[in-house]
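This part of the workshop introduces the protein records we will be handling. A learned vocabulary of local backbone shapes supplies the integers on the structure line. Getting from the letters to the tokens is the skill we practise here. As an example, a complete record with its sequence and its structure tokens follows.
=====
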Amino acid sequence: MSPAPSASTAHPASSRRTAARFAAVDLGASSGRVMTGAVGPDSLELREVHRFPNRPVRTGGTLHWDILALHQGVLDGLRRAGPVASVGVDSWAVDYGLLDADGVLLGNPVHYRDARTEGMAGRLAETLPPQELYAHTGLQYLPFNTVYQLGAARDSAQLAAARALLLIPDLISYWLTGVRGTELTNASTTQLIDPRTRDWSQTVAEAAGVPLSLFPPLRRPGDAAGELLPEVLDETGLDGPVPVTAVGSHDTASAVAAVPARSGRFAYIATGTWSLAGLELAEPVLTEESRRANFTNELGVDGTVRYLRNIMGLWLLQECMRSWESAGSPQEFEPLLRDAGSRTPLRSVVDAGDPEFLAPGRMPQRIGEACRRAGRPVPDGPAGTARCVLDSLAIAHRLAVEDAQRLADTEVDVVHVVGGGVHNELLCQLTADACGLPVVAGPAEAAALGNVAVQARAHGVIGDDAGLVRRLLYDTLPLRTYQPSGDHGSPQEWAGAAAAVRAGR
């Protein structure tokens, strides 16, 4: 695979000559990639060197990640990256691998969309009520949080044989270095971390029956995470030593670190398979009202709190397109969006945060059924369904931004959209119309950029200041601003549609 075009415009050659190159391993739910970032004091140039599929596998009735294929993709990418000053790894959250006493993986990690966690929240609530669980961890209810996965595995032979638990990016890092650690931003998604102390919650672990001894020591973004093993150097052709640096290993933590904001009065929406919409705060919000609004307090780079709500995101449209293809009616993405853009706005909407859309399969039919139950018109064909999805996501973005401001007692004047949804111009415009705020779209590869930026800071290439990093990104990245237009519904129509969705929750 040939390298992709540069994701940014570099500054003059004098800056490029002094730039250091870093490798960002960025694993997403549908694909993984290895990217290199050339960073100097006033320059940043990102290049994709290898992309590979992430195909879950169902076996024995359980949905697994093919973690060995992902690791091979990482090795192939590092081979194509060439000499680098450091490597950083980020991925999705909550999932993990178990190691035996010899450090060998005990089976492929289970996918968070597997049904094994059904009923686990209720079991934990018998020993630790939801109000107390939130007061200790600040994490929103999601049925696949690590604490529930461990509850589902409690009586398994695999967990009984385990001597260590590594979250996905920590597992890849361990295979690269032989050094174990638990990076904090990702650990905060397990529902076992107290966001005030930024350490494990003994209270939650005891109530859930989770032995915290399984987790290696915590480390933070910027910490050293070992060096590439000799066998990895041989496999990749790299000359050692090559350090591995802990980054915001939860991909959303890295993505938020790369929001190119010019001031602190911003909301962000990290878009992709999920939409994660919220604010960057200095302290968690642990009120009962926050819990009822299903907001989460995950930890970010530089001791920040990512106060956000998880929304189903473009998974809804991705699953629709898979269904249409399986039914023999494949859709091309760009023509579909053009047709969707011409449809009547806000005709059919659903609650894009509803857990009923979590599982794969029959997504167009399930969306239609949700519209019917809510007394709204069933979308007409692929274009109508796509418009329903995008209008619904824009409303979910609006509700999350509104609620975050109210619950955190703060105000914003701009919404930054980062991640894969940046390429969806219709979604960006609908989000501006729904929120009634300008939307700044970009960068698309925010997680990889945040990954690279943390490495560059740790190695002294750029200043150790989040504001400096964000100004660098703002100055070097191509960004697009969408203003509320009224072309896709008036402010009153958006307010009415949002109120209807809120009332139906």
Remarks:
- The chain has two domains: 13-249, 260-442+479-505.
- The longest helix spans residues 381-408.
- DSSP finds 20 helices and 21 strands in the chain.
